[in-house]
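Input/output pair, single chain:
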Amino acid sequence: MSAIELKHLTFVYSKKTPFEKRALDDINLSVEEGTFLGVIGETGSGKSTLIQHLNGLIKVQDKKVSSVIVNGLSATDKKALKNLRFEVGIVFQYPEYQLFEDSVKKDVAFGPKNMKLSPEEIDARVRRALEVVGLDYDEFAERSPFELSGGEKRRVAIAGVIAMEPKILVLDEPVAGLDPAGRAEILALIKQLQKDVSPTIIMVSHNMDDIAVLADRIIAMHDGRIELDGTPEEVFCNREKIAEIGLDLPLATRLRDKLVERGVNLPDGIVTPKQLETALANLKSGGLNERGDDNV
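Output:
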């Protein structure tokens, strides 16, 4: 079942002016429910414009040609727009800058209140959301979000989105600006959110290693078009196209290529550290590389 169906989606900023910019150019994309979709591309490739169409933050310009259907709801139907925004939760880059209430509890409750839920249901959702992101309700509920660490603030911001229990969760550079420990915690949380809250995840990232590990499907964008679409292996094995559109390969793939240059016999499709580790372990257990050198 398709969670997202985009057909002939085109979007132009500053139409009919000297600053006209075609951000999306005839995008056709179908995303099955339960998919973890990674979206990569250089700055200005159309990634943010694409994801903001998914819950109507950016309106479809040409309704006669373009369509955006999410969980059966059309982004061009004004009556469906409110429900669409509850179906698709978007966590923008540096979401902690959007915290504004004087307590964690109030901030997380903002979305559920807009859904016109009962006070009891709002309270239950706030408690569940904080629990899911790993923040103890009794410890954090009454604290000011501005007194928290960077990682804790980001968890509160994510909790505010997942408290609306969106079926689709969109994350724009979710680990930007975090230290390595904070990055690892948020990435682990995102994978858990797919199991517990939102079965369909779309994550925009400039970090190819994160995308290669987390996503089961990747689209690579360039000049408003989808240039590559496939599994991480399929996308990152297309080295020429990745370079052509200005992207890097994951570190594990680059390391694999360096080892192959030195004569080590490794599979072509390695894109993640775990796959590389497994391949090297298998190679070591075999005793020799192609050169007959056992010092891999």
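The longest strand covers residues 2-13. Confidence is low (pLDDT under 50) at residues 290-296.
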